[in-house]
Amino acid sequence: MASERLTLARVISRLIYRRTYLKGANSQDTDPLHGRTFSTDLMMRDITLMKQANMNTFRTSHYPRQAKMMAMFDHYGLFVVDEADMELHKNWEGPKTIINNADWTGAIVDRNVRNTLRDRNHPSVVFWSLGNESGSGKNIMAAYDAVRKLDNRYIHYEGSTRDKAEGTDIHSVMYPAMDKWRSETTGPVTSDVNHPNTDKPYFMCEYAHAMGNAVGNLREYWGGNGRL
Questions:
Q1: C-beta of residue 31 within 8 angstroms of C-beta of residue 37
Q2: Is the pLDDT assigned to residue 210 strictly greater than 80?
Q3: Which one of 4, 87, 93, 133 is the catalytic residue?
Q4: CB atoms within 10 A of CB 185
């Protein structure tokens, strides 16, 4: 049987037969009482709350979820941005960064390969994510190539969009402003959401970081997107 590229458009059309938007949340495995001990009941609670809020997408920031939660995503019908456990936060400037250091190629590729091999039979996975906030460079491209050999779904990596580099099939941005450019690749939401400056699908992988007295402009984000 001839292979067929499982594009984002094909996934969506096969599942619901109409255009849709990926509206969801990033999540961390944190229990308010037990810390990193994340129970099955709490997994179910997270999914229930997301379904009640009409969310349809879960990004596994910034590491894969337990296998049992992936099965829950399949069963209850959530799209998953399946992210590997790879972050080099702030180590992304200059030629000596880890992302361009050959000593780290094996580790970065291995984390992405293991994530893909474990989860590639889950229909909930809408695309892969190579990691978070690590810049762009040789090791991202090595991870991209390795994942592509294993699966033909879209591959996401915000750092490559930010640096105008190869290594992502998605035009992914973080924390865009509503009405002005934040960088050469992060335009205002009100125009960029439907007209990104690449030919790739647009995806805000992060846009609201709730910390203390924050997230006061969620209405503007959702209103701006909803009007477009």
A1: yes
A2: no
A3: 133
A4: 21
Q: Which residues of 163-183 are buried (b: 16+ CB within 10 A; e: fewer)?
A: bebebbbbbbbbebeeeeeee
pTM of the model as a whole = 0.86
Amino acid identity for residue 202 in this structure: Y
Whose CA is closest to 79, among 201, 224, 192? 201
Determine the residue type at 32.
P
Closest CA to 219 of 211, 207, 204: 207
206 catalytic per annotation: yes
pLDDT at residue 7 in the model = 53
Mean pLDDT for 81-88 is: 95
Distance of CA 22 to the CA centre of its chain: 11
For the four alpha carbons of 61, 66, 69 and 73, in that order, the dihedral sign comes to positive
Distance of CA 24 to the CA centre of its chain: 10
**DSSP at 148:** H
Query: What is the residue type of 144?
Result: Y
CA distances in angstroms from 157 to 77, 113, 145, listed in the order given? 24, 15, 13
Residue from 4, 158, 184, 206 carrying the catalytic annotation: 206
How far is it, in rounded angstroms, from Cα 13 to Cα 30?
34
How does pLDDT run across 116-167, given as a tens digit for each residue?
Answer: 999 999 999 999 999 999 989 999 999 999 999 999 999 999 999 988 899 9
Contact 182/189 with Cβ under 8 angstroms? no
pLDDT of 183 over the 90 cut: no
Active site residue 133: yes
Query: CA 227 to CA 210: how far, in whole Å?
Result: 24
Amino acid at 125: V
